[in-house]
Amino acid sequence: MKKINKVLLALVLSTAAMAISASEKAATFVVAFAQDDLSNDWRLAQVKDAQGVFEAYPDVEFVYTDGQGQTALQVAHIHQLIEQKIDALITSPREILGASQVIREAYERGIPVILLDRHVDHAAYSTFLHNDNYNIGLRAAQFLDSALEGKGRILMLEGLPGATPTILRREGFINFMEQRPGIELVARTGNYLRRDAILILEEFLSQGNHFDAIYSHSDSMLEGARMVMKRYDINPGDIPTVGIDYIQGAQDALLAGQQSASFTYPTLGEEGAEAALTLLAGEIFPKTIMNESIMVTVENATEIVPIF
Q1: Contact assessment for residue 94 and residue 37, using Cβ atoms and an 8 Å cutoff
Q2: Mean of the pLDDT values across residues 55-76?
Q3: What is the pLDDT of residue 22?
Q4: Which of 144, 194, 217, 289 lies in disulfide reach of 159, CB 3.0 to 4.6 Å?
Q5: Are residues 97 and 148 located together in one domain of the fold?
Protein backbone atom coordinates (compact mmCIF):
# COMPACT_ATOMS: atom_id res chain seq x y z
CA MET A 1 0.00 0.00 0.00
CA LYS A 2 1.29 3.46 -0.77
CA LYS A 3 2.24 5.86 1.96
CA ILE A 4 0.65 9.31 2.26
CA ASN A 5 3.13 12.15 1.97
CA LYS A 6 0.58 14.98 2.09
CA VAL A 7 0.36 15.02 5.85
CA LEU A 8 3.35 15.33 8.19
CA LEU A 9 2.85 13.19 11.26
CA ALA A 10 4.55 12.71 14.69
CA LEU A 11 3.86 9.88 17.03
CA VAL A 12 2.81 10.61 20.56
CA LEU A 13 2.37 7.13 22.01
CA SER A 14 0.14 6.92 25.04
CA THR A 15 0.21 4.21 27.64
CA ALA A 16 -2.84 1.98 27.83
CA ALA A 17 -4.68 4.75 29.68
CA MET A 18 -7.94 5.99 28.25
CA ALA A 19 -7.33 9.73 28.19
CA ILE A 20 -5.88 11.38 25.12
CA SER A 21 -3.10 13.49 26.56
CA ALA A 22 -2.33 16.92 25.23
CA SER A 23 1.05 17.33 23.57
CA GLU A 24 3.17 20.48 23.58
CA LYS A 25 2.47 20.87 19.89
CA ALA A 26 -1.10 20.14 18.89
CA ALA A 27 -1.43 17.20 16.52
CA THR A 28 -3.29 17.56 13.23
CA PHE A 29 -4.94 14.19 13.69
CA VAL A 30 -5.61 11.81 16.55
CA VAL A 31 -5.68 8.13 15.59
CA ALA A 32 -6.81 5.67 18.26
CA PHE A 33 -6.40 1.90 18.42
CA ALA A 34 -9.00 0.28 20.69
CA GLN A 35 -7.36 -3.10 21.29
CA ASP A 36 -8.95 -6.19 22.75
CA ASP A 37 -6.30 -7.59 25.09
CA LEU A 38 -2.67 -6.50 25.35
CA SER A 39 -1.79 -9.53 27.47
CA ASN A 40 -2.04 -11.49 24.21
CA ASP A 41 1.35 -11.42 22.44
CA TRP A 42 -0.21 -11.24 18.99
CA ARG A 43 -2.54 -8.36 19.97
CA LEU A 44 0.37 -6.42 21.48
CA ALA A 45 2.41 -6.96 18.31
CA GLN A 46 -0.53 -5.66 16.25
CA VAL A 47 -0.48 -2.35 18.15
CA LYS A 48 3.31 -2.10 17.89
CA ASP A 49 3.15 -2.72 14.14
CA ALA A 50 0.72 0.18 13.75
CA GLN A 51 2.89 2.32 16.01
CA GLY A 52 5.90 1.69 13.81
CA VAL A 53 4.17 3.26 10.82
CA PHE A 54 3.05 6.38 12.68
CA GLU A 55 6.57 6.98 14.01
CA ALA A 56 7.53 8.34 10.60
CA TYR A 57 4.88 11.08 10.64
CA PRO A 58 4.92 14.31 12.82
CA ASP A 59 1.33 15.49 12.97
CA VAL A 60 -0.58 12.49 14.29
CA GLU A 61 -1.10 11.65 17.92
CA PHE A 62 -1.42 7.88 18.24
CA VAL A 63 -3.14 6.51 21.32
CA TYR A 64 -4.26 3.03 22.23
CA THR A 65 -6.41 1.36 24.85
CA ASP A 66 -6.39 -2.09 26.41
CA GLY A 67 -9.75 -3.84 26.76
CA GLN A 68 -8.08 -6.38 29.08
CA GLY A 69 -10.04 -9.19 27.46
CA GLN A 70 -13.40 -7.65 28.35
CA THR A 71 -15.93 -6.77 25.67
CA ALA A 72 -17.68 -4.23 27.88
CA LEU A 73 -14.41 -2.42 28.61
CA GLN A 74 -13.41 -2.30 24.94
CA VAL A 75 -16.85 -0.91 24.06
CA ALA A 76 -16.57 1.70 26.83
CA HIS A 77 -13.17 2.75 25.49
CA ILE A 78 -14.59 3.26 22.00
CA HIS A 79 -17.49 5.31 23.38
CA GLN A 80 -15.02 7.57 25.19
CA LEU A 81 -12.81 7.89 22.12
CA ILE A 82 -15.83 8.98 20.08
CA GLU A 83 -16.64 11.66 22.64
CA GLN A 84 -13.04 12.84 22.60
CA LYS A 85 -13.49 13.43 18.85
CA ILE A 86 -10.71 11.27 17.51
CA ASP A 87 -10.07 11.48 13.76
CA ALA A 88 -9.77 7.76 12.99
CA LEU A 89 -10.43 4.51 14.84
CA ILE A 90 -8.51 1.28 14.41
CA THR A 91 -9.93 -1.69 16.27
CA SER A 92 -10.12 -5.44 16.41
CA PRO A 93 -13.51 -6.07 18.10
CA ARG A 94 -13.40 -8.80 20.72
CA GLU A 95 -16.84 -10.15 19.76
CA ILE A 96 -19.14 -9.61 16.81
CA LEU A 97 -22.30 -8.83 18.74
CA GLY A 98 -20.83 -6.92 21.66
CA ALA A 99 -18.92 -4.31 19.65
CA SER A 100 -21.03 -3.93 16.51
CA GLN A 101 -23.27 -1.11 17.74
CA VAL A 102 -20.51 1.17 19.03
CA ILE A 103 -18.53 0.68 15.82
CA ARG A 104 -21.60 1.69 13.84
CA GLU A 105 -21.92 4.78 16.06
CA ALA A 106 -18.31 5.79 15.39
CA TYR A 107 -18.71 5.39 11.65
CA GLU A 108 -22.01 7.30 11.56
CA ARG A 109 -20.36 10.14 13.49
CA GLY A 110 -17.98 10.55 10.54
CA ILE A 111 -14.98 8.75 12.03
CA PRO A 112 -13.09 6.47 9.61
CA VAL A 113 -13.19 2.98 11.12
CA ILE A 114 -10.50 0.43 10.26
CA LEU A 115 -11.32 -3.13 11.33
CA LEU A 116 -8.38 -5.49 11.73
CA ASP A 117 -8.78 -9.26 11.75
CA ARG A 118 -12.26 -9.34 13.31
CA HIS A 119 -15.55 -8.37 11.72
CA VAL A 120 -18.92 -6.94 12.81
CA ASP A 121 -22.51 -7.72 11.77
CA HIS A 122 -22.98 -4.70 9.48
CA ALA A 123 -21.16 -2.67 6.82
CA ALA A 124 -20.85 0.58 8.81
CA TYR A 125 -17.04 0.73 8.70
CA SER A 126 -14.46 2.11 6.29
CA THR A 127 -12.31 -0.96 5.62
CA PHE A 128 -11.80 -4.50 6.89
CA LEU A 129 -8.31 -6.02 6.68
CA HIS A 130 -8.15 -9.71 7.46
CA ASN A 131 -6.63 -13.11 6.81
CA ASP A 132 -8.54 -16.01 5.23
CA ASN A 133 -9.50 -17.88 8.38
CA TYR A 134 -11.93 -20.31 6.75
CA ASN A 135 -9.29 -21.45 4.29
CA ILE A 136 -6.74 -21.86 7.10
CA GLY A 137 -9.15 -24.16 8.93
CA LEU A 138 -9.83 -26.13 5.76
CA ARG A 139 -6.15 -26.60 4.95
CA ALA A 140 -5.34 -27.54 8.54
CA ALA A 141 -8.03 -30.24 8.34
CA GLN A 142 -6.64 -31.59 5.10
CA PHE A 143 -3.13 -31.70 6.55
CA LEU A 144 -4.13 -33.57 9.71
CA ASP A 145 -6.44 -35.93 7.84
CA SER A 146 -3.51 -36.89 5.65
CA ALA A 147 -1.14 -37.22 8.62
CA LEU A 148 -3.59 -39.49 10.46
CA GLU A 149 -4.53 -41.38 7.28
CA GLY A 150 -8.19 -40.60 7.92
CA LYS A 151 -8.42 -42.15 11.37
CA GLY A 152 -7.85 -40.72 14.85
CA ARG A 153 -8.91 -38.32 17.58
CA ILE A 154 -8.10 -34.64 17.11
CA LEU A 155 -8.07 -32.13 19.95
CA MET A 156 -9.04 -28.66 18.73
CA LEU A 157 -7.83 -25.81 20.93
CA GLU A 158 -10.22 -23.01 20.05
CA GLY A 159 -9.69 -19.28 20.31
CA LEU A 160 -12.00 -16.68 21.75
CA PRO A 161 -15.70 -17.62 21.48
CA GLY A 162 -17.68 -15.12 19.41
CA ALA A 163 -14.66 -13.74 17.53
CA THR A 164 -14.86 -14.10 13.75
CA PRO A 165 -11.44 -15.80 13.35
CA THR A 166 -12.47 -18.47 15.88
CA ILE A 167 -15.79 -19.05 14.12
CA LEU A 168 -14.24 -19.34 10.67
CA ARG A 169 -11.24 -21.46 11.73
CA ARG A 170 -13.69 -23.87 13.29
CA GLU A 171 -16.09 -23.90 10.34
CA GLY A 172 -13.39 -24.53 7.76
CA PHE A 173 -11.97 -27.39 9.81
CA ILE A 174 -15.27 -29.04 10.71
CA ASN A 175 -16.78 -28.77 7.24
CA PHE A 176 -13.94 -30.88 5.90
CA MET A 177 -13.75 -33.33 8.79
CA GLU A 178 -17.50 -34.05 8.63
CA GLN A 179 -16.66 -35.98 5.47
CA ARG A 180 -14.16 -38.14 7.35
CA PRO A 181 -16.04 -40.73 9.49
CA GLY A 182 -12.79 -42.09 10.90
CA ILE A 183 -11.94 -38.78 12.54
CA GLU A 184 -13.24 -37.89 16.01
CA LEU A 185 -13.04 -34.24 17.04
CA VAL A 186 -13.03 -32.90 20.60
CA ALA A 187 -12.82 -29.17 21.31
CA ARG A 188 -11.67 -27.08 24.23
CA THR A 189 -11.55 -23.28 24.53
CA GLY A 190 -8.16 -21.66 25.15
CA ASN A 191 -9.00 -18.03 24.24
CA TYR A 192 -5.79 -17.72 22.17
CA LEU A 193 -3.80 -17.61 25.42
CA ARG A 194 -0.87 -19.83 26.37
CA ARG A 195 -1.84 -19.89 30.04
CA ASP A 196 -5.42 -20.97 29.27
CA ALA A 197 -4.20 -23.75 26.99
CA ILE A 198 -1.94 -25.04 29.76
CA LEU A 199 -4.84 -25.19 32.19
CA ILE A 200 -7.29 -26.91 29.87
CA LEU A 201 -4.80 -29.49 28.60
CA GLU A 202 -3.68 -30.27 32.14
CA GLU A 203 -7.31 -30.93 33.06
CA PHE A 204 -7.92 -32.89 29.85
CA LEU A 205 -5.00 -35.26 30.36
CA SER A 206 -5.50 -35.62 34.11
CA GLN A 207 -8.96 -37.02 33.40
CA GLY A 208 -7.47 -39.82 31.33
CA ASN A 209 -8.38 -38.36 27.93
CA HIS A 210 -6.20 -38.89 24.89
CA PHE A 211 -5.69 -37.44 21.42
CA ASP A 212 -3.83 -38.40 18.28
CA ALA A 213 -3.34 -34.87 16.93
CA ILE A 214 -3.85 -31.22 17.88
CA TYR A 215 -5.33 -28.41 15.83
CA SER A 216 -4.65 -25.18 17.70
CA HIS A 217 -6.15 -21.83 16.72
CA SER A 218 -2.88 -20.15 17.72
CA ASP A 219 0.76 -21.09 18.08
CA SER A 220 0.80 -19.57 21.56
CA MET A 221 -1.78 -22.10 22.73
CA LEU A 222 0.18 -24.88 21.04
CA GLU A 223 3.30 -23.79 22.92
CA GLY A 224 1.37 -24.19 26.16
CA ALA A 225 0.09 -27.58 25.03
CA ARG A 226 3.65 -28.80 24.37
CA MET A 227 4.67 -27.83 27.90
CA VAL A 228 1.90 -29.97 29.37
CA MET A 229 2.52 -32.86 26.99
CA LYS A 230 6.13 -33.09 28.12
CA ARG A 231 5.03 -33.22 31.76
CA TYR A 232 2.92 -36.23 30.85
CA ASP A 233 5.83 -37.87 29.00
CA ILE A 234 4.20 -37.27 25.62
CA ASN A 235 6.72 -36.34 22.94
CA PRO A 236 5.17 -33.53 20.82
CA GLY A 237 7.21 -34.77 17.89
CA ASP A 238 5.29 -38.06 17.91
CA ILE A 239 1.91 -36.38 17.37
CA PRO A 240 0.81 -34.27 14.37
CA THR A 241 0.17 -30.71 15.56
CA VAL A 242 -0.88 -27.63 13.63
CA GLY A 243 -0.91 -24.03 14.86
CA ILE A 244 -1.66 -20.61 13.43
CA ASP A 245 0.29 -17.30 13.42
CA TYR A 246 3.83 -18.55 12.73
CA ILE A 247 5.60 -16.82 15.60
CA GLN A 248 9.25 -17.41 16.50
CA GLY A 249 8.34 -20.23 18.87
CA ALA A 250 6.56 -22.02 16.05
CA GLN A 251 9.56 -21.77 13.76
CA ASP A 252 11.82 -23.12 16.51
CA ALA A 253 9.40 -25.99 17.17
CA LEU A 254 9.11 -26.87 13.47
CA LEU A 255 12.87 -27.00 13.03
CA ALA A 256 13.21 -29.07 16.23
CA GLY A 257 10.62 -31.59 15.03
CA GLN A 258 8.19 -30.60 17.81
CA GLN A 259 5.44 -29.14 15.59
CA SER A 260 4.13 -30.30 12.23
CA ALA A 261 2.80 -27.13 10.61
CA SER A 262 1.81 -23.52 11.15
CA PHE A 263 0.00 -20.93 9.05
CA THR A 264 1.32 -17.41 8.70
CA TYR A 265 -1.05 -14.89 10.23
CA PRO A 266 0.36 -11.34 10.02
CA THR A 267 -1.14 -8.78 12.37
CA LEU A 268 -1.93 -6.33 9.53
CA GLY A 269 -1.19 -3.54 12.00
CA GLU A 270 1.06 -1.75 9.50
CA GLU A 271 -1.59 -2.02 6.81
CA GLY A 272 -4.21 -0.72 9.22
CA ALA A 273 -2.09 2.35 9.95
CA GLU A 274 -1.58 2.95 6.24
CA ALA A 275 -5.33 2.67 5.72
CA ALA A 276 -5.92 5.33 8.40
CA LEU A 277 -3.45 7.70 6.76
CA THR A 278 -5.01 7.16 3.36
CA LEU A 279 -8.52 7.83 4.63
CA LEU A 280 -7.42 10.91 6.61
CA ALA A 281 -5.88 12.29 3.42
CA GLY A 282 -9.30 12.03 1.79
CA GLU A 283 -8.34 9.23 -0.55
CA ILE A 284 -10.28 6.09 -1.39
CA PHE A 285 -9.33 2.82 0.29
CA PRO A 286 -10.74 -0.64 -0.54
CA LYS A 287 -13.66 -1.80 1.60
CA THR A 288 -12.06 -5.21 2.16
CA ILE A 289 -8.54 -6.58 1.82
CA MET A 290 -7.84 -10.26 2.47
CA ASN A 291 -4.40 -11.73 3.02
CA GLU A 292 -3.62 -15.30 1.97
CA SER A 293 -1.74 -17.32 4.58
CA ILE A 294 1.21 -19.61 3.86
CA MET A 295 1.43 -23.07 5.35
CA VAL A 296 4.84 -23.53 6.96
CA THR A 297 6.43 -26.92 7.63
CA VAL A 298 9.98 -28.00 8.33
CA GLU A 299 10.58 -27.94 4.56
CA ASN A 300 10.14 -24.16 4.22
CA ALA A 301 10.52 -22.90 7.81
CA THR A 302 13.99 -21.46 7.22
CA GLU A 303 12.75 -19.49 4.21
CA ILE A 304 9.83 -17.72 5.91
CA VAL A 305 10.35 -15.07 8.57
CA PRO A 306 8.11 -15.44 11.66
CA ILE A 307 5.63 -12.60 12.20
CA PHE A 308 7.36 -11.79 15.51
Answers
A1: yes
A2: 96
A3: 36
A4: 217
A5: no
237 burial type by CB count under 10 A (0-12 exposed, 13-18 middle, 19+ buried): middle
Calpha distance 167→160 (Å, rounded):
9
pLDDT at 175 over 70: yes
Does residue 251 sit in helix, strand or coil? helix
95: Cα within 13 Å, side-chain hemisphere: 13
The answer to whether residue 23 scores a pLDDT higher than 70 is no
| Cβ atoms within 10 Å, residue 97 | 11
d(CA 278, CA 127): 11
Specify whether 273 is located in the same domain as 182.
no
Same domain? 73 vs 93 = yes
Is residue 72 located within the same domain as residue 185?
no
Residue 10 included in any domain: no
Domain count for the chain, please give it.
Answer: 2
3-state SS assignment for residue 21: coil
In a domain, 17, yes or no: no
How far is residue 90's CA from residue 139's CA, in Å, rounded to a whole number? Answer: 30
For residues 30-46, average pLDDT:
96
Q: Is there a single domain that holds both residue 107 and residue 123?
A: yes
Query: 60 is in which domain, residue-wise?
Result: 29-131+267-291
Q: Using only C-alpha atoms, what is the Rg of the chain?
A: 20
For 108-146, write each residue's pLDDT tens digit: 999 999 999 999 999 999 999 999 999 999 999 999 999
Phi, psi of 66 (to 5 degrees): -120, 110
> Do residues 83 and 147 both lie within one domain?
no
- Looking at the chain, the whole-number percentage of residues with pLDDT higher than 90 is 91
Which amino acid is it at 42?
Answer: W
Find, among 227, 234, 191, the residue nearest to 209 by Cα. Answer: 234
Phi and psi (nearest 5°) for 23? -100, 165
